[in-house]
Amino acid sequence: MGFWTEFYALSFYLATLILLAGLAHKIYQYAKTPAPLKVPTMPAPLTQRGVVLRLLSEVIFFRSLFRANKWIWLFGMLFHGALWLVLMRHLRYFTEPVWTWVVLIQPIGQYASFAMMLGLVGLLVRRIVVERIRYISSPSDYLMLILLLVIGGSGMMMTFVAHTDIVQFKTFVLGVMSFDWQEIPTDSMLLIHLGAILLLMIIFPFSKLLHAPGVFFSPSRNQVDNSREKRHVAKWAIKQFETKQN
Amino acid sequence: MAKVKFETPDVRPYPVIPILKQDSMKGDGPFVAKPPMQAALGYPGELVDNWQEVAIEKMGDLLGKYRSLRVYLDSCVKCGACTDKCHYMQGTQDPKNMPVARQDLLRQVYRRYFTVAGKLFPKLVGAKDLTKDVLDDWYNYYHQCSQCRRCSVYCPYGIDTADISMAAREILDTVGKGQKYCNEIIGKVFKIGNNLGLPEPALRDTLEGIEEDIKDETGIDVRLPLDVEGADILLVTPSADFFAEPHVDGLIGYAKVFHQAGASWTVSSYASEAANFGMFIGSYENMREISLRIRKAAIDLKVKRIVFGECGHAWRVAYSFLNTLAGPFDFLDQRYPIPQHICEYTYDLIKQGKLQFDKSKNDDRRMTFHDSCNVARASRMGDIPGGQFVIPREVIKATCNHFYDMPSDTIHDQTYCCGGGGGLLTDDLMELRVKGALPRMEALKHVVETHGVTHIAAICAICKTQFLKTLPFYGFEMDQIISLHQLVGDALILDDKTDN
Ligand code: SF4
Ligand code: SF4
After folding, report:
1. Peptide linkage before B339 cis (omega within 30 of 0)
2. Structural domains of chain A, with CATH
3. Ligand 2 neighbours (beta carbon < 6 A)
4. What ipTM, to 2 d.p.?
5. A100-138 pLDDT per residue, tens
6. Number of the ligand 1 atom closest to the C-alpha atom of B98
């Protein structure tokens, strides 16, 4: 068994573990932290159903972002939308036999990578060129975009220029998933691509990528407007105050 | 306008995104609260020796108590969508008045002390130690946020800088660096019952004086009762309404509406304040304490309903928090909203046909309406989302013939703060207030030029006071700001009810 095979197989387990455990921890933390006061940004939905629709409009269409800034919206939309297509296309490397719908979207997924890169470049250029955004950017904000560009770039190289041995690669992936390791192809593009992805998975729960779970827990977006009808007293508030009263 | 040491920003002919002027509003911030004011609210009198430790500990405490804070500090992707949305940023061009940069003042410390990335790689993720400079920046720039929530409308994750400002101010109070204006006022409410420190006898005098004025003007006996036990309605209104124009004209309007509806109502001297500055300093405890005064007044006076007068953040606390903080209000009449806004009250009567207006009385006024930030983005009126935009406009249209809205990106939930909200309505922040008024003044200028608008109506004591002060800086007259219920009062046809 070659060094790269062992290295990537072990890194794959480690990265998956960190990603899942880190996210689970964060989601648990968000879920258990109380929201003692109703603070939806109004106008807000009056029903739970309405809240679901509001959240969907944010998550799928980036509604608030659209109202704020059409350029950021456009690049953000291009990146995220294309990323979903690309991710779905990648399911072909994890399933055997490959699901029909994954086979069908294969060409769309391949070309979506151009949109994804365009979105990323757009965001990066704005971050560098627009004074206000440059002011609020830390090194990690640039590096995050660069990491994503590396992932996209190396992936596109393999799709369109220097093909890797996909059959052998898939054997490797399925082997890792079934704890029956097989050799990984050692083209540098593939190793870069995978390495960058594993790094991203590890960074995810410690970085601003937490916006992904965060948006669902945002009190200004996920609360029902019903505070005149219902009381919402947090446990800590009861402990701290209400026992004293009366 | 003699002693101004700053320049009023130029009104921009078309929307431009301002260029940043680094440190243009750097400074010591507003006056700091004196030790006795701090003590009255349960905070240390001056900056404690181990302030750094106390601040971090308090931050940890708040992170465990408020999901909003935790999620907002984690989720920002620095997309920049909010960067040009704050009126203070537009008016001052100080980059630290960009909502995200304002959040970052707290976020950098959060990252340093509470996140793995910030502990290991502070430079990489923009994490910073809590130094005296950072603390000073907190004090200065968290008192340049009116907690208007405009930024939260546009953020893809709904990150609300108002919430973060509140948390920051609570931390500042906890380490002994409170703001004079807010804390002094809260102290007055605890001691006397209202922000102005108006005691019961003075309040009684004032109300009687207003009754006489109405009698002189209309020849009709309109009552403004105080501390009447057994009245149906308790009116809780900002104490500014008892004090000066244009506020008091609004109060006269409410009184006339109650009169015409034949309602039995009263003001309470114990809870003679709708405003709740506990919210501005992010203090659940103080906010609750002030809210409980209203509950007590309602119980003591045995009323059946609570109606709030025109006040923006007061309505936020009343609408969104009162039930939670001081409920349950099971002793009130459940057929009416608890609490109810005076605009809802008036609007209901209009719909029932119980109020008749002579609109021509307002013909010399061409109106526009300023959506107060806290009413627009933090509360509701009526039973549909957005009722807070519809109801006040319907009331205005029922009482006058000429109404024109300001540009659509400056009204409803996109409204601009007046520039004086969130505990900043103090003379030591005059420069900030004038500069922060810029976007609203531009929008006003637009309708003045296109529709010949002469007056702007508001439903918030802070907005009214702020406009009174800032309109002249932009070439308008002070008296162009009026209370919404002044329009109502002036056009309402009154019946003499003395014999029934
Ligand atoms: S809440 Fe209002 S004042 Fe504060 S940062 Fe946001 S837009 Fe500016
Ligand atoms: S809009 Fe929201 S996510 Fe974007 S920079 Fe502002 S606070 Fe951060």
Report:
1. yes
2. 3-30+47-226 (1.20.950.20)
3. B 76-82, 99-100, 155-157, 159
4. 0.95
5. 999 999 999 999 999 999 999 999 999 999 999 999 999
6. 5
